Amino acid sequence: MITTVDVETSWQKTDTGGYDPSPFHPDNILVSVGINDEYYFTNHSERVDEGCYHKIQSILDKTTLLIGHNIKFDLMWLLESGFKYTGRVYDTMLGEYILNRGIRKSLTLEMSCRRRKIGSKDSAIKEWTDRGIPFQDIPVDVVEEYGRIDVAITRKLFDSQMDDLKMAKNKGLLMTLKMMNEFLVVLSDMERNGININLEELHSVEKEYRAEFAYLKQKIDKIVYKQMGDTKINLSSPEQLSWLIYSKKPKDKKEWAKIFNVGIDKSTGKNKRRPQYSRQQFRNLVSDNTEVIHRTVAQQCHTCKGKGVIKKVKKDGSPYKNYTKCPDCDGEGYLYTPMAKVAGFRQVPRSVYDIAESGFRTDRITLNKIAAEAEGEFKDFIDAIVRHNAVDTYLNTFVEGLKNFTNEKGFLHPKFMQSITATGRLSSRDPNFQNQPRGKTFPIRKVVTSRFEGGKILEIDFAQLEFRTAVYLAQDKQGMEDIKNKIDVHQYTADIIGVSRQDAKAHTFKPLYGGVTGTEDEKKYYTKFLEKYKDIKVWHDQLQSEAIRFKRVKLPTGREYSFPYAERTPWGGSTYGTQIKNYPVQGFATADIVPLACINIYKLMQEQKVKSLLVNTVHDSIVADIYPGEEDVMSKIFKQGTADVIPALKEYYKIDFNVPLDTDLKIGYDWLNMKEVE
Q: What is the pLDDT of residue 366?
């Protein structure tokens, strides 16, 4: 039996002005359940149907396919409310996402139905929700009308999508959609399981890095005052930071952007040709189009001999008509502020690649390059700025993110989303747990521990997954040979460019995605990479031709990405070249292969009836919370589940994946301090 479901729940306001409808919030309740043509109130101020739980469960028991829009939300609410369902699911939001082929469109039920001209969600409920009234306080008849409309148009949307998927041009998407719906069940279980956070350890980590942040701030302030005197510089502003480093700022930003902008032409959407200047031409252009930054130095007040604070001064060093009043003597005296010598460190950008549309670049990569050549106090400053920014991001993004969304019991329930990225790659929010720092430089991962007394954290990583995926898709002979001989492509990159293995990954990925620019050493490596892996270069050219001709790129799995405006560029490439080369690799690796591994592992865990829990998946890794004594059986399940990906690719998509998929398995008492499992 096919059943359509839509739940309405209460919600709690958040500090940011939004709302939290999570089933894991202790104050939230399930208000009502719409199921096919029937509607039940489970907990409402005016009417509670005492038999609703039995009636809903009896329908679920007969259901073989459960349909909903963003059904993961509905499914988790049903399961958290005590209902049971183990059958198949179909998410109409995922269906719309797949049929859109990577083109960003609103996936709300309202907009999806409007595009297909199959109904509207017009209801009197908007009058209530616009006033901030929660569902449990809205009259029963209004909620019921709204719920019945949702259920009805969701079923119409499903029927419309099924008609689309039967069309010849869309049949290849069927198996992708089937896999994504199976993965949805795994993700809903992960969300419900949650991640255990050691709150004491989190507090300790925060305390350590707030102390470092304060020290760095003090160090930076001393250096800045020495260079700038009383001239106030906001170091959080990339523009003002560049004033300090380069001692100059653009005279005319429009003219500056015209000369130096190397991004995308906003009017055409095409890549701009990078300007080619000789070193001397470049220096002359920078000099002609910038003005010098000066600093101010406060003189003593003639009345009280205090130093005071300078707030206002002319460029020539003379005070304005109304001199700055001295705060040390309550404005009885005045301060004069002569101009000092050129402020800042007077650096010269090395090339056009150090130029941004609004001035000089001050991003982390540029600052690291500057630091490599800097000396003395300037090096101290750049190193301190880089570290200060990193610690600031670490505290505000990662530490605060965990604090804000971890409940008092120490559990975190990040929301996993399958339909946000263009490639199909998984993302998460509340907080973003797909981007937690690795390594011990920022040891946030050590706060993730087992919920079980004596339990451990188990993680399996695919080795060089995106490179292996590219090798398969391109059928690159040299790549296959290197994989066979256990050559570490990231270490190969690191050895050539002269960086750490971790930092080398970005460089390995760059030519995979068509990148050729950078420093001279980087350019040489990218050229060398594409000369070595010739078939990847050929495949890139084929992808661009396919995108230009058919306005889309298609994966062997059937997954497609649309490029309706792809055109040949004058220099032989294509517009959207990076995306055209990026999407197939990232999509196949992290949107198809990793989910298949998760599905395999999840099924094996159910068969073995283990007490351990899947809790997270990050890009090319899968994480579990291990019940004491299940370390060996879970290690075997993880190894078997990832090994079964290649047979699964054949079963789902009729793909003979002829590149080995190696994995690394680690275990430990927290997510940071882990040891390899043989």
A: 86
Beta carbons within 10 angstroms of residue 162's beta carbon: 12
Burial of residue 98 (number of CB atoms within 10 Å: 0-12, 13-18, 19+):
buried
The candidate with the shortest Cα–Cα distance to 381, out of 225, 208, 210, is 225
Q: Shortest CA distance to 358 belongs to which of 262, 265, 236?
A: 262
Which of 358, 393, 428 is the C-terminal boundary of a domain? 393
Q: Is residue 118 located within the same domain as residue 231? A: no
Tell me, yes or no, whether 280 lies in a domain.
Answer: yes
User: Which range of residues forms the domain containing residue 353?
Assistant: 202-297+338-393
- φ, ψ for residue 380 (rounded to 5)? -60, -40
pLDDT, residue 469, reads 95
Distance (Å, rounded) from C-alpha 381 to C-alpha 344?
11
Residues of the chain with pLDDT under 50: none
282 found inside a domain: yes
Give pLDDT, residue 266.
57
Residue 672 has which token pair? Answer: 């940071």
531-536 long-range Cβ contacts below 8 angstroms, 24+ apart: 532/478, 533/471, 533/474, 533/476, 533/478, 533/479, 534/476, 534/478, 535/474, 535/475, 535/476, 535/477, 535/478, 535/479, 536/470, 536/471, 536/474, 536/476, 536/479, 536/511, 536/512
Judge if 388 and 262 occupy the same domain: yes
What pLDDT shows up at residue 196? 97
Q: Are residues 274 and 225 in the same domain?
A: yes
**Total-model pTM:** 0.84
Q: What is the pLDDT of residue 318?
A: 60
Same domain, 147 and 210: no
Position 19 scores a pLDDT of 76
608 domain-assigned: no
330 CB contacts (<8 Å, ≥6 apart)? none
CA distances from 172 to 164, 166, 167, 556, 595 (A): 12, 10, 10, 9, 18
Clarify whether residues 348 and 271 are in a common domain. yes
351 in any annotated domain: yes
Position 460 scores a pLDDT of: 97
User: What's the CATH number where 10 sits?
Assistant: 3.30.420.10
| Cα 301 from Cα 627, distance rounded (Å) | 72
Task: Please give the pLDDT value at position 319.
Answer: 54
Q: How many domains does the chain have?
A: 2
